[in-house]
Amino acid sequence: MIVTPQSMPFREPLALQSGAAIRDYALAYETYGTLNAQRSNAVLICHALNASHHVAGAYAGQERSQGWWDTMIGPGKPVDTDRFFVVGVNNLGSCFGSTGPMHVNPDTGRVYGADFPVVTVEDWVNAQARLLDALGIERLAAVMGGSLGGMQALSWTLQYPQRVAHAVVIASAPNLTAENIAFNEVARRAIVTDPDFHGGHFYEHGVIPRRGLRIARMIGHITYLSDDVMNEKFGRQLRERMDAVQRTAGAYSYTLQDVEFQIESYLRYQGDKFSEYFDANTYLLITRALDYFDPALAHDGNLAKALAPALAKFLLVSFTTDWRFSPKRSREIVKALLDNRRDVSYAEIDAPHGHDAFLLEDARYMAVVRAYFDRVGKELMSAAGPSQGAKAPPGGSEPHAVGSVGAPS
Amino acid sequence: MIVTPQSMPFREPLALQSGAAIRDYALAYETYGTLNAQRSNAVLICHALNASHHVAGAYAGQERSQGWWDTMIGPGKPVDTDRFFVVGVNNLGSCFGSTGPMHVNPDTGRVYGADFPVVTVEDWVNAQARLLDALGIERLAAVMGGSLGGMQALSWTLQYPQRVAHAVVIASAPNLTAENIAFNEVARRAIVTDPDFHGGHFYEHGVIPRRGLRIARMIGHITYLSDDVMNEKFGRQLRERMDAVQRTAGAYSYTLQDVEFQIESYLRYQGDKFSEYFDANTYLLITRALDYFDPALAHDGNLAKALAPALAKFLLVSFTTDWRFSPKRSREIVKALLDNRRDVSYAEIDAPHGHDAFLLEDARYMAVVRAYFDRVGKELMSAAGPSQGAKAPPGGSEPHAVGSVGAPS
User: Closest Cα of chain B to A306: distance in Å?
Assistant: First the structure.
């Protein structure tokens, strides 16, 4: 599937949760499949920290340019683009195409840098809603995301309950734990205390706070993997380019700063690569959006109350070895939805890969999502016409809000 | 209990595992209690990353100068200094008194800095054995340590099996997992990529790589605590000095770089404090010693074979919420010792505090250690004289190696 990125400009200011506003911004996006005549088959994909609007397919003439969720989305895949019109969108503040800290602030004529306004999950959802307006999509067949993307999918059902038929929330949480905030904070400190950060205005100095970005990414990678998979993948194996004699003897080279174990070279490589393409201000923005997300905050911590406005049907998926967004956190969302008598499916996948599992091709995981989207597709068909009338639930044009949805408490 | 640190100089070179040697070094140490006439009641305490020879008691005229394990060791405490002669020793390479990177290299007349030789757990144990020689202690009633200190206690039983009656190994592991090495590596990278590190020769530049040390300590703190205790202690509470109106409203201030959550100010405070007193080169040395420790390496990973030389009796303790040195890792040691038919006691303490629990005053934990040292004391008494003859096991002067100790396989 060959795809082309697009950009949608927005002139009108978007009011942000912080009280600030942003104007003259653009959102990068891609679409896969065809919007049907009823405009009812759209699926919005929300991305997490290190991802973008390039969700599926590949760019013409570019090897290895597959989208980040290409195993999940495409023709004949679990989210089948022969059936659904899938929209991938890059969030505000990103460094992959949408307006972000590297762009020029129209109010000052200078690059935003650290002056880019703080954006939240709710702000992103509002910006995505405007994009859908521009694309002529009133109601989503589904909104879907993993991790931070799952937070956006959940927030969609609260901010625009009438516009979402199904929400697919994968490896996510109703808010971050103190431990997760702590990891984010260490990563941010590594970035902002890098002398090349220059208070976030490093672009003007022609430098990049690479050291901080490397550390941030290394921390991230540790938390994305499970202890078990890390042991299996790297264990205590000595580095590959070690002198062959030493390696055979299983001996150490007794070095303090050089790479000794394979896990070290893996992390350094990941850190180096990341620091080449990721923007430091974007890292701060996105991790802060993670920290801030907490729909229950305005309800004295009562998540059931917070989720009462949701009208969508839900699929939640978690992974047993994910210690960053553990199954326990997904179960909190499931319970709060059930307290509101919502229609919820939940799958806890026994996968060894930790948080990363949501991006990997696990057969059971794929089967769960495929089955769920089959159901979404069938509901679309039964809503579409009289040929399926016998199976259609009462309510006609709004079948998704009928039957299994209880009244908000 | 008022105590005084002492220093023992060593002229003779100490051969190190790396092949290098160190000469003209000194070890800082403290002793508590009285060595008995038979010189049989000595207990050696080995320290972990951020600790020293100052294990118990306090310094005259210094408020809040209690040793790092003062809850455990002292008159009437679980390791009772009315009964045992306890020795605390600072390891080579430390920054708390023993010869380390901040001292002058006698070979060059310059401060060691990054040229301080790599030291291992085995090297530390050899250095500690020399200190005991100098103190006239041939055989230890017990060697004891937590975390990295537990690795030293375990190594004592392998390097000097005849010199150790009991080994108390707390919250430790037979080696680090890939995840633990990974956390160490990120901390090290933060230090060595700090521009103030100057390749480890920062002393000459009159600077300290504080940024790197802060990040290292923040990472450490996250891994010492359990997710649960962090949530309980800090949760998602907003910072204390926040504007009272905002705090009442439970609202955010939408800041990217300032402290927003209490966990952030806690970590920053810990990082700042640490960077004021801890040496960067010492941090590299000690974390590398942790990485390298792996007695099974020379036995194709067979821990039972590796532990076969041990003659001591063992107490192992682990804590349920310790994800850095999990109970599973202690159980590996227990199993390997049982495979060798060694005398092993094992307690898995249900404590919420994560790895930090080994330093805290948990009643069950204290009771387990107290009961074990009661036994160590009784064995000493029964070995000491005919008045306890009826209870003494056969074997006379070497009672500790008799009965429950099987033959090495």
Answer: 15
Q: Please name the residues in contact with A250: beta carbons below 8 A apart, sequence gap of 6 or more.
A: A238, B297, B298
Q: Is B190 on the interface with A (CB under 8 A)?
A: yes
- For A49-90, the pLDDT digits (tens) are 999 999 999 999 998 999 999 999 999 999 999 999 999 999
What was the ipTM of the complex prediction? Answer: 0.90
A146 and A240 co-located in one domain: no
Residues spanned by the domain of A257:
177-292
Q: Does B239 touch chain A (CB under 8 A)?
A: no
Tally the domains of chain A: 2
Q: Report if residue A404 sits inside a domain.
A: no
Residue A147 annotated to the active site: yes
Do the beta carbons of residue A323 and residue A226 sit within 8 Å?
A: yes
What pLDDT, on the 0 to 100 scale, is given for residue A405? 30
At B181, which CATH number? Answer: 1.10.1740.110
Contacts of B323 in chain A (CB under 8 A): 227, 323
Do residue B263 and residue A182 have CB atoms under 8 angstroms apart? yes
For residue A315, the distance in angstroms to the closest alpha carbon of chain B comes to: 26
Question: Are A39 and A163 found together in one domain?
Answer: yes
User: Are B101 and B165 found together in one domain?
Assistant: yes
Same domain flag for B83 and B67: yes
Torsion-angle region of B308 (φ positive above 0: left; ψ -120 to 50: alpha; else: beta): alpha
Residue B49 in 3-state DSSP? coil
Q: Which residues of A are annotated as a binding site for substrate?
A: 217, 356
One domain, residues A167 and A189? no
User: Is residue B112 in some structural domain?
Assistant: yes
Residues in chain A within 8 Å Cβ distance of B100: none
Say if A227 falls within a structural domain.
yes
Chain B interface mutation, best of A225, A238, A257, highest count of B Cβ atoms under 10 Å: A257
* CATH number, domain containing residue A376: 3.40.50.1820
The residue of chain A with its CA nearest to that of B16 is: A254
Q: Is residue B396 in a domain?
A: no
Q: What is the pLDDT of residues B371-402, one digit of tens each?
A: 999 999 999 999 887 654 344 344 333 333 33
Does B30 contact chain A (CB < 8 Å)?
Answer: no
SS3 of residue B111 by DSSP: strand
Residue pair B349/B317 in contact by the 8 Å Cβ criterion: yes
Claim to verify: residue B197 and residue B278 sit in the same structural domain: yes
Is the CB of A260 inside 8 Å of chain B's CB atoms?
yes
Q: Which two tokens stand for residue A131?
A: 């994009």
Enter the tokens of residue A192: 């902002």
Q: Chain B: give the shortest CA distance to residue A212, in Å.
A: 8
User: Is residue B196 domain-shared with residue B298, that is, in the same domain?
Assistant: no
Triad B64, B354, B77: Cα angle to 5°: 45
**To the nearest whole number, what is the mean pLDDT of chain B?**
92
Partners of residue B188 in chain A, C-beta under 8 Å? 256-257
How far CA B65 is from CA of A92, B2, B56, B213, B221, in Å, comes to 52, 10, 9, 23, 22
Q: Which of B266, B292, B318 is the last residue of a domain?
A: B292
pLDDT score recorded for residue B398: 37
DSSP B235: T
Contact between A267 and B185 using a beta-carbon 8 Å cutoff: yes
- A297 interfacial to chain B (CB closer than 8 Å): yes
